[in-house]
Amino acid sequence: MEQIAIDNEIRAERTWLGELEGFHFSPTFPRPNAFSLLFVHGAWSRDKIWKQSGVDVAIAGFNAYAMSLRGHGDSKPVADLGKVSTEDYIADIEEAAYSIRGPLVIIGHSMGSHLGAVAAHRNPGKVVGFIGAASAGGRWNFIGWKPAAAMMKRDYLDAMLGEKPFMIGRDDARKLAFNGISEDGFEKTFSELQMESGLAMREIAFGKRALPRLSCPSLIIAPEDDLLTPNQASISRSLGAELESIPGCHMVMLDRGHEMLARKIDSWLTRKFDL
Q: Which domain holds residue 102?
């Protein structure tokens, strides 16, 4: 079973959440009464994007998991990735959530935040809290003209309208998503990005659904230099979520950003659930 060694200690191992691959970040000293955490990645990514954040929260005492959506990593294969819908991805999150014992908190990034919020809304008995970082919005949450113009490029439109798998362009990724990341960090992570569903991205980009109003405690974390999804205040209002900001760009879990993100997650969960 694949494991990750951090600071000479084994803190994570490969696991399966139903038919979905994932990592389990097991705390050395579990925090009493803490809920499990389920990390959901964004577009073009997979579970590995969360590995440092997962280690961080495990060190803080939380039992955590990171999942890969279908067609990503080694998760359940699909016949045509381009035709995978957001409803398919939401079903994946629900499958992963119900494979974990007990209630949990969903933590999503970008597209994974949008999907995770819907899963949290639909499963109030299972999902007791929600955190979104650099969240993708819904029907009434306009992202702004600069990122909208980037997504209207012909190659992207052809893929979204034609329901084909596609990759974000290198220049767009660097300028909009990785603008605060070191060159080494960008090169390594960009080389590991994966193709994404044209249909799912069309549903996100063109606002298939409005974001739900959440009944569980919820938080939107807004990176201060996020150029791809700068509309976090609008998204937090739609969800009825608290809004807090931290330094960083859209890919806030990379480089040293993972430490600030983990501290924000830890402090909010501790306060909201009296841990």
A: 3-272
